[in-house]
Amino acid sequence: MTEREPKTADENEPETVDGKTADELLNAVGPAFGKLRRSALLEVDEPISQKDLSRTLVLRIVLEAEQSTAQGASESEGASGGASAGPGASEITVGAVARHLGVDPSVASRMVSDCISSGYLVRAASQQDGRRTVLHLSPEGRELMARFSRHQRAAYECITADWPEHERLEFARLMLKYVASQDALRNRAPGA
């Protein structure tokens, strides 16, 4: 075991990463996230139009709710020998889209109507409350989301092509952790 040498005057300065202090790095995160959305249209395999890129905001909400419902039903079937979470456990309405995106319901309504008229979403009566209208992906909506996922993967691989593999995977892991933390904050009870 070696003894640590006393700090010199230069060692008392703030630690840096890639020549930036912690404050400089943290202050750069917000603008970097803004650039991420704008760079989503990179010319990689299966390009996505600007209009369809906007539509994927709504379609992702519906897709994730449908996947959550399917996952909950699978887990319930396994635990209870066949009972499921029931239809519509995570039904998505225009109001839910508005809340998730943080926009006015009239804005969400226009976004949803655009997705419906483009053939990506369908309206249906709620299985929980027939007075409500819920949203489901159409087969075309599922295909757009599959194409968008392929596009996102290709863009990520293109952007990080010169990164070491461990950095690409670590960045992906941390980005998913960040999004999970953001979702947890969005979904917490008011005043919690």
Describe the protein.
It contains 6 helices and 4 strands, in the order ββααααββαα. The protein has helices spanning 22-38, 50-80, 94-101, 105-117, 139-159, 165-187, and strands spanning 16-17, 20-21, 121-125, 133-137. It is mostly helical and 192 residues long. The model is unreliable at 79-89 (pLDDT under 50). 59% of the residues lie in helices and 7% in strands. A hairpin with a 2-residue loop joins β1 and β2. The longest helix has 31 residues, at 50-80. It is globular. α3 (94-101) crosses α4 (105-117). Strands 1-2 form a two-stranded antiparallel sheet.
Describe the structure concisely.
This protein is 59% helix and 7% strand.
- Which regions are unreliable across 5 or more consecutive residues at pLDDT < 50? 79-89
Q: What is the mean pLDDT?
A: 81
Query: What fraction of residues sit in β-strands?
Result: 5-15%
Order of helices and strands, N to C?
Answer: EEHHHHEEHH
Question: In angstroms, what is the radius of gyration?
Answer: 22 Å
Number of alpha- plus pi-helical segments:
6
Tally the beta strands: 4
Largest sheet: 2 strands, antiparallel
Which class of secondary structure composition applies to the elements?
mainly alpha
Helix content: 55-70%
Span from first to last CA?
48 Å
Q: What topology, given as strand order, has the largest sheet?
A: 1-2
Shape: globular
